[in-house]
Amino acid sequence: MAAQLYDLGHNVEYIDVDVNKIPCTFSIKLGDKTYTLTFKYNAQGGFFTVDLETTQGDVLAYGDIIRYGRPLFGSIEDDRFPLPVIIPRGFTPGVDTVTFENFGKEVKLYLYDRGVA
Prior knowledge:
117 residues, 8 strands, single chain, 4-stranded antiparallel sheet, mainly beta
């Protein structure tokens, strides 16, 4: 599920999300733990959300809105959360929001080491 990219000299990975398959749920290894991510789209509000669970079924976050440039799960982290910081962003000039048209294409969920983000 993760692909690689080079960003300003740092090797950066991202979580590959296909909006055409949302709502969707998949497991992904982040750091030394495996998590379950569930992506949904709120058509009325025009935004995406993500749920985060442990493989044991513990819900760590429910309905976290995916906002451009803001780390996911930032305000509710504890030691059960993924080690990398997950930031929705892109490198296309003029793109500064997450939309159905650009999510998974111009805007991806990039993974950063905590000391780099």
